[in-house]
UniProtKB/TrEMBL annotation:
Keywords: Lyase. This is Ferrochelatase protein. Its EC number is 4.99.1.1. It comes from Dioscorea alata.
C-alpha cells in the first residue's frame, strides 16, 4: 500500500488545481482502484478502472479528468498533460480482521399484516417529508397523520388484500441484504448488512442499535432507491443524520452515504437485460412500446423544494434507452408517473391517463417497466399488474407485459457490492456541527409555543375560507 504515489498536476478544476497526493487505494477489485482526498469542497474519491482506462469522480461516470496523454507502462500508470497520475500496482487488499464493515440498506417498509396498515400509514404521513406542511402548521402533522391514516386505511387494505394480505417488502429486502453480503464476500470484503426501514419494522432505530452492538468500525449507507427523492432516500438520510448527531458512538464512526446510484453501469445493464428478456416474449418485439412507470411525487417537491427526482428519473431512462440502442433495440418508449395521493398536482404525465391515450392512438403492445424501486411491492403487484393492466386492455392495448423488479438479480447485487466497495474510502466522520433545522421546532420550546399560537390563529382563519373548505373536502374524497 505504501508503494503508491499518485499525483494530479495542473488541472483546471478548482478542487484539483494544486499538486495533490491521494490516499493509498483502499480497495482493488477487478483492476478498479479507488483513491480519495480532501478537497476544499469536501471529500472526493477518484475511481480508476485500469482495464478500460476510465476515470469516475465521486461515482459520476461522465466526469472526465482532462488527460492529454496516457501511457500504461508495465506496472506503472502514467497520465501526463493536464493531469498526471502515477502508481505502482499494490495488489489485492482484504479488509483487516480489526475492521468491521457495516452496510446499512435503507428502505420504506410495508405492513406485514392487514392490522399493520393504519399504524404504517400513520408513520408514513407523520413524516414531514411526505406531508410537507408550512412551518407554522407543523404542529398539526401528527393529528393530520392520524386523520389521513384512518381515512386512507380501508382503500390501502383492499390493495394489500389483493396481494395476499401484506407487503412483501421486508422479506425481499432481507433476501437482498443476504445476497449482498455474499457478493461482498466474493469480492473479498467481509461486511455485515443491516436493513433500516423508514415506516415499519425493522425500524431505522433497531438497525442502528444492532450496528452499535456489533461494534462496526466503518459504515456505508445504501438506500434501495436508485434515484434520490426528498420523500424517500432524503427522508431516511435525514433521520439517520439526526440519530448520528445525537449519539456519541457515531461521532467516532467513519460513514459514507451513497445518495443515488441510478447511473451505475451494472444497474443500467441489469435493467436493460430484464427489458430485453421481456420484449422477447412478445410476438413482434420491435413493435412494443416500452412504458416506464415511476412512482410520482408532488410537483412542488421538484419545483419549490429542489428535489432532483424528476431530473434523475429522466436521465436514468435516457441511459437505459441508450444501452438498449447499443444492443440494437430501438423501440419507442415513454415515461409516466403513478401512485398519486391527495388533491395536489403530482408529476405528470399520469400513468393512468397515458395508458388510455396510448390505447386511443392505436398502440397494441406495451411493456410496463417499474423504474423507481428495486423490489416487488403493492404498487407493482396491485397497481400495475391489476389496475393498470385492466385499464390498458380496456383502452385497446392487446398485448401486455411487465418487467419484474430487480430483486436479487445477480448482476444487480454484484453492482451494489461494487458501489459499497467504491464508497469505503470516502467514509468520514459525520460533522456534529451541521445544523438540522427540521428538528429545531421540536427542541426549542419557545419556538414551539410561538408556532402553536400563531399557527392556531392562522388555522382558524383559513378554516373559514371557502377555498380551504373545498380543498379539504377534495382531499378527503381523494383519500377514500
Ligand atoms: C421511489 C419510490 C417512492 C416514492 C418517490 C414515494 C413517494 C410517496 N409515497 C407516498 C404515499 C404512499 N406510499 C405508499 C407505499 C409505497 N411507496 C413506495 C415508494 C415510494 N413512495 C413503496 C415502495 C410503497 C409500498 C410499500 C409496500 O407496502 O409494499 C403508500 C401506502 C400504500 C397505499 O396506500 O397506496 C402511501 C400512502 C407519498 C405521499 C409520496 C411522496 C410525497
Ligand atoms: Fe409511496
Amino acid at each position: 500500500m505504501d508503494a503508491l504515489s499518485c499525483k494530479v498536476y495542473n488541472t483546471n478544476l478548482s478542487d484539483l488545481c494544486h499538486r495533490r497526493t491521494f490516499s493509498p487505494p483502499a480497495l482493488v477489485c477487478n483492476r478498479k482502484y479507488v483513491f480519495s482526498f480532501n478537497g476544499s469542497h469536501g471529500q472526493f474519491s477518484l475511481h480508476l478502472n485500469a482495464s478500460t482506462d476510465k476515470f469516475k469522480m465521486n461515482g459520476k461516470p461522465n466526469f472526465q479528468l482532462p488527460v492529454q496523454e496516457r501511457r500504461l507502462l508495465g506496472k506503472t500508470f502514467s497520465f501526463m498533460g493536464d493531469c498526471a497520475l502515477e502508481e505502482n500496482f499494490p495488489g489485492v487488499r482484504m479488509n483487516t480482521s480489526q475492521e468491521k464493515i457495516g452496510v446499512l440498506l435503507l428502505n420504506l417498509g410495508g405492513p406485514e399484516k392487514l392490522h399493520d396498515v393504519q399504524p404504517f400509514l400513520f408513520n408514513l404521513f407523520s413524516d414531514p417529508d411526505i406531508i410537507r406542511l408550512p412551518r407554522l402548521f407543523q404542529f398539526l402533522q401528527r393529528p393530520l397523520a392520524q386523520l389521513v391514516s384512518v381515512l386512507r386505511a380501508p382503500k390501502s387494505k383492499e390493495g394489500y388484500v389483493a396481494i395476499g394480505g401484506g407487503s412483501p417488502l421486508r422479506r425481499i429486502t432481507d433476501e437482498q441484504a443476504c445476497t449482498l453480503k455474499e457478493a461482498l464476500k466474493e469480492k473479498k470484503v467481509n461486511a455485515n448488512v443491516y436493513v433500516a426501514m423508514r415506516y415499519w419494522h425493522p425500524f431505522t432505530e433497531e438497525a442502528i442499535h444492532q450496528i452499535k452492538t456489533d461494534n462496526v468500525t466503518k459504515l456505508v449507507v445504501l438506500p434501495l432507491y436508485p434515484q434520490f427523492s426528498i420523500s424517500t432516500s432524503g427522508s431516511s438520510i435525514k433521520l439517520l443524520m439526526r440519530i448520528f448527531r445525537e449519539d456519541a458512538h457515531f461521532a467516532q464512526l467513519p460513514i459514507s452515504i451513497i445518495e443515488s446510484w441510478y447511473q451505475r453501469e451494472g444497474y443500467i445493464k441489469s435493467m436493460a437485460d430484464l427489458i430485453e428478456n421481456e420484449l422477447s416474449n412478445f410476438a413482434n418485439p420491435q413493435e412494443v412500446m416500452i412504458f416506464f412507470s415511476a412512482h410520482g411525487v408532488p410537483v412542488s417537491y421538484v419545483e419549490d423544494a429542489g428535489d432532483p427526482y424528476r431530473d434523475q428519473m429522466e436521465d436514468c431512462i435516457n441511459v437505459i434507452m441508450d444501452e438498449l440502442k447499443s444492443r440494437g433495440i430501438g423501440n419507442p418508449h415513454t415515461l409516466a408517473y403513478q401512485s398519486r395521493v391527495g388533491p395536489v398536482q403530482w408529476l405528470k404525465p399520469y400513468t393512468d391517463e397515458v395508458l388510455v391515450e396510448l390505447g386511443q392512438q392505436g398502440v397494441k403492445s406495451l411493456l410496463a417497466v417499474p423504474i423507481s424501486f428495486v423490489s416487488e411491492h403493492i404498487e407493482t403487484l396491485e397497481e400495475i399488474d391489476m389496475e393498470y393492466k385492466h385499464l390498458a386492455l380496456e383502452s385497446g392495448i392487446e398485448n401486455w407485459g411487465r418487467v419484474p423488479a430487480l430483486g436479487c438479480t445477480s448482476s444487480f447485487i454484484s453492482d451494489l457490492a461494487d458501489a459499497v466497495i467504491e464508497a469505503l474510502p470516502t467514509a468520514s466522520l459525520v460533522s456534529s456541527s451541521a445544523k438540522d433545522t427540521s428538528s429545531e421546532t421540536d427542541t426549542d420550546p419557545l419556538r414551539y409555543v410561538i408556532n402553536l399560537f400563531f399557527g392556531s390563529i392562522l388555522a382558524f382563519v383559513l378554516l373559514l375560507t371557502p377555498k380551504f373548505i373545498s380543498t379539504f373536502r377534495n382531499f378527503l374524497v381523494y383519500l377514500m
